[in-house]
Amino acid sequence: MTAAAIRIENEIRGLPLEDQLALHTQILVLIYKDEPQPLDPAFREEILRRIEEIDAGEVQGSDPFEVLRRM
Fold first, then answer.
1. Residue 10: pLDDT above 90?
2. Is there a single domain that holds both residue 55 and residue 29?
3. Residue 44: which H helix or E strand, with range?
4. Tens-digit pLDDT profile for residues 21-46
5. Which is more confidently placed, 60 or 49?
6. Which domain holds residue 24?
7. HSE-up of 20 (CA within 13 Å, CB side)?
């Protein structure tokens, strides 16, 4: 990595987790904005199944920030 990238990484490490995740999302959008990545059909089916379970009240979702804190 360049010195600039190392400096930026060190600054990011000092940010709150929520800000780090927001930057992560923005970077991914910048990288992949012109290259749509289709989902594998099996993965898409699994996502839809889980969404239906949450919507039906069969399972309860978790706060993603809390999950990341526990990791």
1. yes
2. no
3. helix 41-55
4. 999 999 988 887 777 667 788 998 99
5. 49
6. 1-34
7. 13
